[in-house]
Automatic annotation (TrEMBL):
Record domain N-acetyltransferase: where: 12-165
Superkingdom of source: Bacteria
SUPFAM superfamilies reported for this sequence: Acyl-CoA N-acyltransferases (Nat)
Stated name of the protein: GNAT family N-acetyltransferase
Organism: Pseudonocardia aurantiaca
The EC number(s) this enzyme carries: 2.3.-.-
PROSITE patterns: GNAT
InterPro entries: Acyl_CoA_acyltransferase, GNAT_dom
UniProt keywords, alphabetically: Acyltransferase, Transferase
Length: 186
């Protein structure tokens, strides 16, 4: 009986996305299958629109953080981002995309962990991710990366909320009654 082997862990470098890297976004998007695009954007997206591209490149390193994972040869293989909620400055929405050929190599976990640490240093206490129920890989990733995670259904998605503490790391995340009550509010 053959045993299934997982893809080898690959060394990648994480760095900030720059505002002028539209070509990099295009390369990442081209590496996503139609299914991966649907799972990431919750809609069948055949191409990035000009408005979407502008929004994804609108980074400032504080309220809109984006980190790129690059292979040793400089090829972009993933991106993770957090965008601060203007109505609740201690909260940011998080998303991650890994090109299909690089799935199951630990890149998503590295990206979400690094983005969470960057966001936390900038005052974010809650990270929110909207994940389609059929996206088992993303659900597993967020649940394994964030020890304290709340979830609830919202229209077509599962909303995952990771609560960060103020200690500066992801190991000792905590949750308060205020956080629970905030998630129950409509």
């Amino acid at each position: 009986m053959a045993t299934k082997q997982s893809a080898p862990r690959t060394e990648v470098t994480l760095r900030d996305l720059r505002r002028d890297e539209g070509d990099l976004l295009d390369a990442l998007f081209a590496g996503l299958s139609p299914r991966s695009r649907y799972l990431r954007f919750h809609s069948p997206i055949p191409a990035l629109s000009a408005g979407m591209r502008r929004a994804l490149l609108d980074v400032d390193g504080r309220d809109r953080i984006a980190l790129v994972a690059e292979a040793a040869d400089g090829t972009p293989v993933g991106i993770g981002r957090a965008v601060r909620n203007t109505g609740r400055p201690d909260e940011a929405e998080m998303a991650v995309s890994i090109v299909d050929a690089w799935h199951r190599r630990g890149i998503g976990r590295r990206l979400v962990t690094a983005v969470a640490q960057r966001a936390q240093v900038r005052g974010v206490r809650r990270l929110v991710a909207r994940v389609l129920p059929e996206n088992a890989a993303a659900l597993g990733l967020f649940r394994s990366a964030f020890p304290v995670l709340l979830s609830h259904r919202d229209d077509d998605a599962i909303v995952l909320v990771a609560v960060l503490d103020n200690a500066g790391g992801t190991e000792g995340w905590t949750i308060t009654m205020d956080d629970i009550l905030a998630d129950l509010a409509p």
